[in-house]
Automatic annotation (TrEMBL):
GO terms for biological process: glucan catabolic process. It comes from Suillus discolor. Keywords: Hydrolase, Signal. Residues 1-21 form the signal peptide. GO terms for molecular function: hydrolase activity, hydrolyzing O-glycosyl compounds. It comes from the Eukaryota. This is Glycoside hydrolase family 16 protein.
Length: 396
């Protein structure tokens, strides 16, 4: 009778070893050995993060990969922009074939993505310099965007940006500038441009400094005032843009955009969180962001929608051109544009761009959300109940 009890228990354990709750239990265990063998079995250890984001309903938020842009397929899902520069730059954006033919876009043998401004052609005064601007074919409404790069463009007269842009009439679906700077600045600037009514909140927790005009914080993201300054935050780190960032072998920029706000982090190479490198990002463990736009003064879902991802390298223009005289760079922006040697650092070198979407861990709900304990489904509970009943019956 004792052997029958053991057989019933072991049959149950054999069934459970094939469920997703216990994927690592060896399938070749001699279940006839009974509970003695089970008693010596060491269950797999699961290490949970020390902190996880939680949704308003109490569920744990996980970020799962949605799109990956890298290597030989990077440009397959981007479109090359060839129109006039909306920021009045002294630049001509070329099409994809021209970009590849002229070396302005390429993939290296070790799968690094290169985009650069023309750094080989001597120009006459007043002639635009060729460059690249691309936009993703996919559009996004919220997500976690993580860019890993070895180099971002910089140099006198150079104005690069990594940003997202809402479709339709600008700026009514918003613009988020994640990486942006001019000349050889050392501090990255994160900026939001929107329709009137979205504002930056001063008491939001972030480590950067709010951009000012005439000593006053630019809190209104309204693109129709302050010469389209938007609401910007300058990062504290001198390695977040320019030569120091590149000397440190680049790093990672991350933007978390959801209904609770939009936050940006940057990490130079030596400080990239392990959860990012392992493909399991967890913003809750990254500390305060360098910049954040909260829902306290901006309805995120109202002002930001249908965003494509954009990379570009502009020369001179509204920001780099207008700030040139105080930049410490020689001559004028038009002068420096002529010599290709001035643009040897005007390059993006990208390892990967990953876009994650939210998923939820819910151990109570029977919805389609991910569950931590599949053993608790109805079918398995029925089997357990049956085994208990049989165990009692045999005991009689």
């Amino acid at each position: 009778m004792l052997q029958l009890r053991h057989a019933i228990i072991c049959l149950l354990c054999g069934y459970l070893s094939k469920t997703t709750a216990f994927p690592s239990i060896p399938s070749n265990i001699d279940w006839k050995a009974g509970v003695e063998l089970l008693g010596s079995f060491e269950w797999p250890k699961i290490t949970l993060p020390t902190k996880r984001e939680t949704a308003p309903n109490g569920s744990t938020i996980l970020w799962v990969i949605q799109d990956t842009y890298e290597g030989s397929t990077f440009f397959d899902t981007f479109n090359f922009y060839t129109g006039a520069d909306p920021t009045n730059g002294l630049v001509t954006f070329v099409d994809q074939q021209t970009a590849f033919n002229d070396g302005l876009a390429s993939i290296t043998s070790d799968n690094k993505v290169i985009m650069r401004g023309d750094n080989t052609t001597q120009l006459a005064y007043g002639v635009n310099r060729n460059s690249v601007r691309i936009a993703s074919q996919a559009e996004y409404n919220m997500g976690l965007f993580i860019l890993d790069l070895d180099m971002a463009p910089w140099g006198c007269g150079v104005w690069p940006a990594f940003w997202t842009l809402g479709s339709g009439t600008w700026p009514y679906n918003g613009e988020i500038d994640i990486i942006e700077g001019v000349h050889d600045n050392e501090h990255n600037q994160v900026t939001w441009h929107t329709a009137p009514g979205c504002n930056l909140t001063q008491n939001t927790n972030f480590t950067g400094t709010i951009v000012q005009t005439n000593g006053t914080d630019n809190l209104q993201c309204n693109a129709f005032i302050n010469n389209n300054a938007g609401c910007g935050v300058t990062e504290w780190s001198q390695a977040s843009y320019g030569p120091y960032f590149d000397e440190a072998n680049g790093g990672v920029f991350a933007m978390n955009w959801d209904e609770n706000g939009i936050a940006v982090w940057s990490f130079y190479r030596a400080t990239v969180p392990l959860d990012i490198t392992q493909g399991r990002p967890n913003p809750s463990n990254w500390g305060e962001p360098v910049a954040a736009l909260s829902t306290q003064s901006c309805n995120i879902t109202h002002y930001f929608a249908n965003h494509s991802i954009v990379f570009d390298i502009t020369f001179c223009g509204d920001w780099a051109g207008n700030s040139y005289a105080t930049s410490g760079c020689p001559g004028t922006c038009e002068d420096i544009l002529m010599d290709p040697a001035n643009f040897v650092n005007a390059s993006w070198i990208i390892n990967s761009l990953s876009v994650y979407k939210q998923s939820w861990l819910d151990i109570v709900s029977t919805s389609s959300a991910t569950r931590t304990h599949p053993i608790m489904n109805l079918k398995t509970c029925w089997i357990i109940s049956t085994v208990i009943f049989l165990h009692l019956l045999v005991s009689l």
